[in-house]
Design goal:
The complex is a heterotrimer of chains A (413), B (311) and C (287).
Chain A (H helix, E strand, L loop, with lengths): L1 H10 L1 H20 L8 E8 L6 H20 L3 E3 L2 E11 L4 H13 L5 E4 L3 H14 L3 E3 L5 H4 L6 E3 L5 H14 L5 E7 L2 H16 L3 E8 L7 H10 L3 E5 L2 H14 L5 E5 L5 H7 L6 E4 L17 H12 L6 H20 L4 H9 L2 E4 L2 E4 L13 E5 L2 E6 L14
Parallel strand pairs in A: 1-3, 1-4, 4-5, 5-6, 7-8, 7-9, 9-10, 10-11
Antiparallel strand pairs in A: 2-3, 11-14, 12-13, 14-15
Helix pairs in contact in A: 3-13, 4-5, 7-8, 9-10, 10-11, 13-14
Chain B lengths: L4 H20 L2 H26 L7 H17 L4 H23 L4 H21 L1 H4 L5 E2 L7 H28 L1 H11 L1 H6 L4 H27 L1 E2 L1 H4 L2 H14 L6 H19 L4 H15 L4 H9 L5
Antiparallel strand pairs in B: 1-2
Helix pairs in contact in B: 1-2, 1-7, 2-7, 2-10, 2-12, 2-13, 3-4, 3-5, 3-10, 4-10, 7-8, 7-10, 8-10, 12-13, 13-14
Chain C lengths: L1 H31 L6 H19 L3 H22 L9 H23 L12 E4 L2 E4 H23 L1 H11 L1 H6 L4 H24 L9 H15 L4 H22 L1 H18 L12
The chains are: A alpha/beta (413), B mainly alpha (311), C mainly alpha (287).
Organism (chain C): Ancylobacter oerskovii
Protein name (chain C): Branched-chain amino acid ABC transporter permease
Subcellular location (chain C): Cell membrane
Chain lengths: 413, 311, 287
């Protein structure tokens, strides 16, 4: 049966080879013929995870960047000295694969001649894309990387709009101890991945430093589909505070299994779970009482420069665009990332890479997302970050004091 | 089969095209050429066990990832770059020989599954041994301080060198008693053992050969990107992609795996650049079509034609 | 001691879910000799169908069980009949590559339509306590369903004409053909049943695990391990393999920390591959 098929196929193969050859030639031509057009637009390149494990986050970045570009271009473009230039955003899907991310960053720089890069979601991939930007000295703005380890390797062209995640742990321990003085022990369960791991280690360190006992601390590997064993051990340790870090799917599962197995504590924190609406939607009532920290919340009220002068302006546009969804910190931070570029162009009035890099390094602006001022490593300076809690299936802000709209409550039994 | 002059000509042209990209094309094309050379080396490596011997091995990503990590750990300990690559190659080669002696007792589907499990186990061990490997944080390597063009050219030539070495090894094996023995095992392992071929040793040799070039490529790749982590280094996707490339070109031939890798990487480029949301599905369609319409690989077409087959 | 009874209970419940996840995969592998890379995506597809019916129209997952089963059977049957049958006797590499390509397509389609957002059917039935052991009701129901479905499949394989034909084809294809069994049709039915079992596993999972395309690879990996541990192509094999894997992961997670739980599963698999390739249950008759 096989033989027959083979022969039938052989008869029609030449045409098919021709097609294949043509496709390959087209591929070569496509990659080789990148016309060096006269510079008419500001080009920003973005390798994005539109498929694969980080697809949700990639789509968020895609959404707000497109909103920003639309808004900028509707107003005539960005000011470069005394003239205005339109902005063009060039995106590719890197499929949540690091190797492809660096390859596409290279393509954006070489073929598409972008002057700036937006780094993708997550500390690991930001590191990879930042490395390419560094090699070509193309300023790279990272809006969703908060691990200090990303920014301490002397990448001089990488700038991050999130503040260091170290700021999330100490303040949280302090506040919870103040509100719930009986908090003596903490159990930590973290995903073995750059950001969740650094949060897990960070909170354990901060808790110990402030006199808490770490009753349990373990990491779970990528690809874990059941937390029952870890949670049973945590239950036996009877901690006053349970802290779990991971991606949304891990956290939904962990919370669900905590309920199933009757594992609870007066305080349950999940990072960054409640920052995402997918978390509260996936859990429904079970999300109630869970605390978290975030880098930004739309209840904050900042004013500043750029296409969205106030948080309310951004919120309104965002709701109109998404038919009523609430933006989270990824949306906020990424939407503000463009303003860093706008400001640098305005101040330098040129497209010179080195000048732009220096201008970005000395950024000191106010935006709807909050102040952006880069420290010596290229990371946004620490500030007081919101601590949030889910109450009645909505997100309440517990701190900082000026935007606080609820008090910390204990986990419902 | 003996590789004819056509295969050698194709190889020479292919390598020349890749090597000359820095003369006329921008850095992205050079990078694509380096990636083609890298996957070419991986597919050519796989060919020893998968093509010649007919064992469906899916260990490529394990060897590549271990190469990344051994190289990176050596470099971080102050070993010079090229020496680190060499150490990685030798260590992973030795590992493959030991592992091969164990898992090559399996056949068919069982071997396939066992070889995939090796990738997962390596990933999990590397990931949990954080004192040595940094765990989920990954490892940073010293970035080369040359300009981007020099770096790219350097790694293009490194990858090409690995590719050429793997091809030379293939040509040598092809002509030697080892190659003959491996093909016998492919045809009928029991019969091969009966005519006096030490099948275990032969298979272990093939498996080790399939590992060393992957390890070298992995170690070089780690130095190139400057950052590695467990999920990126041990990818199931890579472990399936490489055999697909070899099959696309023609498994068991000298030039096939390299040509398949080139065609596959270029196809990927076209899809990624042009179909933002659907690239994976399109690649899937291409794979399905290949299995149906080109089961012998690209080379089988050329061979038929040159032999004056039905056209 | 209380903690151990809890950990054993966790392991057994997880193990029953693993068995349910793997049994279709095992059947296809055993009968068709095809490693079906689509299996993980089939499970997620079943989960998504359940979630949309529940979320959009308030249909209870139990109602969706036969619907999803029928739909996935049709999908699997058609795929085998139209696509996979053409190369079903080719070497493992070919069939594996083909199903891998098909999986890329299905994965892309699902990610495009449904996005990768984790979703969950929120039944949240609470928990019951048995002495020191807490048993979540929806997992108990899932466990029961998993066992019932697996046993139902066992009954079908042993008791019906189709089942006997499948077993016959598994044991000797050419002899079966001589007996007048249309093997291509049997292959299509078997693959359909494999997809059906994956789909109903998805229904069960939808209220226990978050449903997202991100986990298709994880599910597939579990199916590998369960099949090898228990023994290929047999329903009891999948059941034993699932339960053993669930227990091993549970205990390893407790003793060595969650980081080693998955590793322990894979190491167990490699050990069994090398010492007892037919699995714990062995190749009795490919029921």
């Amino acid at each position: 049966m096989f033989e027959r098929d083979l022969r039938r196929r052989a008869a029609s193969t030449p045409r098919r080879t021709g097609l294949l050859a043509a496709a390959l030639l087209a591929a070569l031509a496509g990659t080789a013929a990148a016309p060096a057009l006269a510079q008419e637009t500001i080009k920003i390149g973005a390798p994005l995870a539109l498929t694969g494990g980080l697809a949700d986050e990639g789509h968020k970045q895609d959404l707000v960047w497109k909103m920003w570009v639309e808004k900028v271009n509707a107003a005539g473009g960005l000011a470069v000295g005394d003239k205005k230039m339109k902005v063009e955003l060039i995106e590719y899907d890197y499929q949540s694969e690091g190797q492809r991310a660096s390859q596409l960053a290279e393509k954006l720089i070489n073929d598409d001649k972008v002057q700036f890069l937006f780094a993708p979601f997550g500390s690991g991939h930001t590191k990879i894309v930042g490395g390419v930007g560094e090699r070509y000295q193309v300023p790279t703005i990272a809006c969703v990387a908060s691990s200090e380890s990303v920014f301490d390797q002397s990448l001089k062209h990488l700038f991050g709009t999130l503040s260091p995640n170290g700021g999330m742990t100490t303040a949280m321990v302090k506040m919870f101890k103040e509100k719930f003085p009986d908090t003596k022990t903490i159990a930590v369960l973290g995903r073995d991945d750059v950001f969740p791991k650094s949060m897990a280690e960070g909170i354990a360190k901060a808790a110990e430093a402030q006199g808490l006992t770490v009753a349990y601390k373990e990491l779970y590997p990528v690809g874990t589909m059941d937390h029952a064993a870890a949670l049973s051990s945590i239950k036996a340790a009877k901690p006053d505070w349970i802290y779990v870090s991971g991606y949304t799917q891990d956290l939904i599962l962990a919370r669900k299994q905590m309920q199933d197995l009757g594992v609870t504590a007066p305080i349950v924190t999940m990072v960054t779970g409640p920052s995402y609406k997918e978390f509260t939607e996936g859990l429904g009532k079970l999300a109630d009482g869970i605390t978290s920290s975030s880098w930004w919340h739309h209840a904050t009220n900042y004013t500043g420069q750029g296409v969205w002068p106030t948080t309310a302006d951004f919120y309104k546009d965002f709701q109109a665009k998404t038919k009523g969804a609430d933006p989270d910190y990824v949306h906020g931070s990424c939407a503000a990332a463009g303003e860093v570029i706008a400001e640098a162009l305005k101040r330098t009035g040129s497209l010179d890479k080195a000048k732009l890099r220096d201008a970005i390094a000395s950024t000191d602006i106010q935006t709807f997302y909050g102040p952006i001022k880069f420290g010596p490593t290229g990371m946004n300076l620490p500030r007081e970050l919101p601590i949030i809690q889910v109450q009645d299936e909505t997100i309440k802000v517990l701190a900082p004091a000026d935007i606080k709209n609820a008090e910390l409550i204990a986990m419902p039994k | 089969m003996r590789s004819g002059p056509l295969a050698y000509a194709l190889l020479a042209v292919g390598i020349l095209v890749l090597a000359s990209t820095p003369l006329y094309a921008d850095n992205y094309v050079v990078r694509t050429a380096a990636i083609v050379a890298m996957y070419g080396a991986l597919a050519t490596s796989w060919n020893f066990i998968g093509g010649f011997t007919g064992y469906p091995s899916f260990s490529t990503a394990a060897f590549f990832g271990l190469g990344c990590y051994v190289g990176a750990i050596c470099q971080r300990a102050g070993v010079p770059m090229v020496l680190a690559w060499l150490i990685a190659t030798l260590m992973v080669g030795a590992f493959a020989a030991l592992l091969g002696a164990i898992i090559l007792r399996l056949k068919g589907h069982y071997f396939a599954i066992g070889s995939i499990a090796v990738v997962e186990v390596c990933r999990l061990i590397v990931s949990s041994w954080s004192s040595l490997t940094g765990g989920g944080d990954g490892l940073n390597l010293p970035l080369l301080t040359w300009g981007p063009e020099q770096v790219m050219r350097f790694f293009l030539f490194v990858m090409l060198a690995i590719l050429i070495l793997s091809l030379i090894a293939t040509a040598l094996v092809d002509r030697s008693r080892l190659g003959f023995g491996l093909r016998c095992i492919h045809q009928n392992e029991d019969a091969a053992a009966m005519v006096g071929i030490d099948t275990t040793r032969y298979k272990v040799a093939a498996y080790t050969l399939s590992a060393v070039f992957c390890a070298a490529a992995g170690a070089a790749y780690a130095s190139w990107t400057g950052y590695i982590d467990p999920t990126e280094s041990f990818q199931i996707l890579m472990t399936v992609k490489v055999p697909v490339m070899a099959m696309l070109g023609g498994a068991g031939t000298l030039a096939g795996p390299f040509l398949g890798a080139a065609a596959f990487v270029l196809l990927e480029e076209v899809f990624w650049a042009n179909f933002l949301d659907w690239n994976r599905a399109i690649l899937g369609v291409v794979i399905v079509l290949l299995v149906f319409f080109l089961p012998g690989g690209l080379l089988s077409l050329a061979r038929k034609r040159s032999a004056g087959g039905p056209a | 001691m209380a903690i151990y009874s809890q950990i054993l209970a966790n392991g057994l419940m997880l193990g029953a879910l693993y068995a349910c996840l793997a049994v279709g995969f095992s059947l296809v592998w055993g009968v068709l000799n095809v490693i079906n890379m689509l299996h993980g995506s089939f499970i997620i597809l079943g989960g998504y169908l359940t979630w949309f019916a529940w979320h959009g129209w308030g249909i209870h997952p139990i109602v969706m069980l036969p619907v999803v089963g029928a739909l996935l059977f049709a999908l699997g049957f058609a795929l085998q009949k139209l696509v996979i049958n053409r190369v079903v006797s080719a070497p493992v590499l070919t069939t594996l590559t083909l199903t891998f390509g098909l999986d890329m397509i299905l994965y892309n389609v699902m990610t495009y339509w449904f996005t990768a957002t984790p979703r969950r059917v929120q039944l949240d039935l609470g928990a019951v306590s048995l002495g020191p052991v807490t048993l979540p009701v929806d997992r108990l129901v899932g466990t029961a369903l998993a066992l019932v479905l697996t046993l139902a499949l066992y009954a079908v394989m042993r008791g019906s004409n189709i089942g006997r034909a499948i077993v016959a084809v598994r044991m000797d294809r050419s002899a079966a053909e001589l007996m007048g069994i249309r093997t291509e049709r049997i292959y299509a039915i078997t693959f359909g049943i494999g997809a059906l079992m994956a789909g109903v596993a998805g229904v069960v999972f939808a209220s226990v695990f978050p449903i997202t395309t991100n986990v298709t690879g994880t599910y597939l990996g579990k199916a590998f391990v369960v099949c090898v541990v228990g023994g290929l192509g047999s329903v009891p094999g999948a059941l034993v393999g699932g339960l053993v894997l669930g227990l091993v992961e549970s205990l390893a997670g407790h003793w060595f920390g969650p980081q080693q739980a998955i590793t322990a599963g894979f190491v167990l698999m490699l050990a069994i591959l090398l010492t007892r390739p037919t699995g714990l249950v062995g190749v009795r008759g490919y029921e």
